[in-house]
Design a protein that fits this description.
L-arginine/glycine Amidinotransferase, Chain A; three-stranded mixed β-sheet; 15 strands; single chain; alpha/beta
Length: about 325
Amino acid sequence: MSTSSRPVFLVSPPRPDWRVRGAANVFSQGAPASVPRGAALTEWLTLVDAMVAAGADVAVLPFDDHDDTLTGLPYVAEAGFVGRARDDDGGPVWLLPRMKPAHRRTEPAHVARFAAECGIPTRTAPVTWEGQGDVLVVDGPRGAPRRFVCTAGEGPQSRTSSDAFAHVARFLPGPSLSLRFTADPWFHGNTFLGFFPARDDDGVVQETVALVCLDALLPGEAERLRAFLPDVRLVALGRDDSLRYATNALVVGRTVLAPPGVPAFVHDVWRGLGLAVVELALPTLFGRGGGAAVCLTNRLDVDFGVIPPHLRYAACRPALVAYAPSSMANDAP
């Protein structure tokens, strides 16, 4: 577990020639496959710079110079989940995903190589499971364990098997809940459910709010969610509001990086928690590719010291900026 108060995230840059390939979700279906060269990478750099400014430590899973088919790799929420081994020394274990879209099935091999460079052992899910997009973390107050909500959908957009919970839960260092939802138009848990904490000056959680589209949940699941998280305040989103991806806003410390168009009442909730709201437009990666800030990141429960220096954002950024428009060349993160 990280010994620093700074959160650690994994990100993966889009290639300069990134495009829509699989069109596997409701946002990307019908979107033009081609995009202006460098547009996705420029958006991505803006996002990661904002994460660093908000207090994140960032590790980078590099893109493959020789393989232009890995267009899903920037959406690293699906790169798995770093859990804990309960039957060994309690050290980190990287649970690798088993992806549903055919064009993303080679991604776990790239993630496994990254994990190996960090010295983290891996396990592979035996059934379809798409990682942190379906493992939502609820930080507890001081002395309380983290809790985990593991989601699986039923319907045409289903991406994670309900059988995955039995495999994943034994690597989660805290209580966990299996939650079922309607997979149309939602496809991962983070598309309709998100947790937002209020922290004091020492970083200790004082209150947590869950933004949730109750229409996404199967019958009886809202009651199970409330029973599992009795101390968490649930704020309901309507279907249309949920598709603005408020639940995909990324919390870094006391800042929330949010997509534009989130309803005003949600901004009021965030500010009531003491969170500063920074809006980030991602017209290519979100508007065409279908994933906002949470989809583009993977929260790592590791000490940043295990990340090799050459895989840290500070080391990678200059080369990535060289691929992007020259206007970013002199900007500092």
